[in-house]
Amino acid sequence: MNTMSNFKDTNSIPDGYRALNTSELQELLQDEEKMDQIVRLNEKFQELQVDREILLTSNRSLAEESLARRPRLNNGKLQLAEKYRDLTNLATACWEKQSRLEADIQKHSLQTAQNLLQEDVARAEEQSEDKPAPIPDRPKEWNPRAPPEFVRDVMGSSAGAGSGEFHVYRHLRRREYQRQDFLDKMTEKQKMDLDYLDKVSDNQQAADERTAKRRKKREKLKQKKLMAKKAKQDANKGEDSEKSSSSSEEDDQEREAEDDAEAPSFVMGKR
């Protein structure tokens, strides 16, 4: 049992301290400086120290970054608070306008608006009936200035003309061109009016001819109907005369037969 326990203890203790006995290990444990030195020289402790320094540096960098961003965060908070304040103001204004709109809708319904419009229309009609409607005159057609009876100071565009006379000549030439264009347009308009009148007269004549032809056709049909009706009436009259003659002959024969018959000895229904 002792050998087994010694074997387990030696396996649990690091390789450098397996050779030490129990008393030496106890002394070593009681010496804090040596234990601190042993712990500091341990590889795992050194790795932990390195990790601790890395974490400290990363935490320091994160803290510096957060400190650098703190003013921006504070500005964002202030802006957010202002936006929220503006939003609340807009919401209150919207609710007030909506309540005012609902009140106006209830006050001025569609029926009320229709009645007001009808009253305005009736008032406008009354005013229009009382006030005469202005009828604008027909716009006057543009007429060029009549040519002068006697032309003085006849000049050309370049022969013997100075700088001032050339402008006068150009003005006269432009006015003459306008007059000639107006005369051409009036001639074309008169020609179109005459063509239109001729076309209207031709259409009227063709319409009169069609109307006369249809009237003649209707009169022929009317004469045919009258002739057929007259022939039918004559035929009906002949048949009526024949029927009346035959009925008179039959009545005479019946009367003779009644006279030849004996009188009855009694009559039914009498006492």
Automatic annotation (TrEMBL):
One cellular component (GO) term of this entry: nucleolus
Keyword Signal: no
Compositionally biased region (Basic and acidic residues): 122-143, 195-211, 231-243
Region described as Disordered: 122-171, 195-271
Alphabetic keyword roster: mRNA processing, mRNA splicing, Spliceosome
Residue ranges with Basic residues bias: 212-230
Lineage: superkingdom: Eukaryota
Compositional bias segments (type: Acidic residues): 248-262
Keyword Manganese in record: no
GO molecular function: double-stranded RNA binding; protein kinase binding; protein kinase inhibitor activity
Cited InterPro entries: Prkrip1
GO biological process: protein transport
Family to which the UniProt record says this protein belongs: Belongs to the PRKRIP1 family.
Name the record gives this protein: VPS37D subunit of ESCRT-I
Native source species: Oncorhynchus mykiss
